[in-house]
Amino acid sequence: MKARIIILIWFTLIALLLIIGIYSCSANYHFTKFIQKGGKIDTTERIVNVEKTIRVNGKDSLIVLKVPTTCPEVKIPPSRLERRIEYRLKRDTMRLVKFQTKWKVKEVVKIAKTENKSNWWVWLLVGFVASFLVRQVGIALMKRL
């Protein structure tokens, strides 16, 4: 007896949930929410071909009519998640560009330093050779006198 009552209660609860789920909101409700959130429906005129088959004197005839109609195109505004994804993509690309330019600048500075770097040891060697030559020339001149 108790099992039948429990099954009956579960059955009625599931039936009520299904009925509420089916009849809870209509298409009109969703359409008004769509309009409230900024959705727009643009209508543009397009030409649609309509074919008709007509029997004339026992033979089939095919008539093609061009009928102008208005076909609505729905423009759905981006959702909150789509906006977040777009923002993250922009942010990440900006970070990537910033990172790449930082390393390019470092490479350019490094190359400029190596190219413009004066070789001080070459100048030191030239100075020692010049002082040695001056001293030797001075000694040779002193011996002549």
Task: Describe the fold and architecture.
By secondary structure, the chain is of the alpha+beta class. The chain folds into 3 domains: 1-37; 40-77, no CATH class; 78-145. It is 65% helix and 23% strand. The protein has helices at 2-23, 27-36, 80-116, 120-144, and strands spanning 40-56, 59-75. Strand 1 and strand 2 (59-75) form a beta hairpin. The longest helix has 37 residues, at 80-116. The radius of gyration is 45 Å and the shape is elongated.
Explain the layout of strands and helices:
Layout: H1 2-23, H2 27-36, E1 40-56, E2 59-75, H3 80-116, H4 120-144
Query: How many strand units?
Result: 2
Low-pLDDT stretches: none
Distance between the termini: 143 Å
Structural class: alpha+beta
Please indicate the percent range of residues in DSSP E strands (runs of 2 or more): 15-25%
Radius of gyration: 45 Å
**Helix content range:** 55-70%
User: What number of structural domains do the residues give?
Assistant: 3
Q: Given the structure, what is the number of helices?
A: 4
Which terms summarize this structure?
alpha+beta; two-stranded antiparallel sheet; 145 residues; 3 domains; elongated; single chain
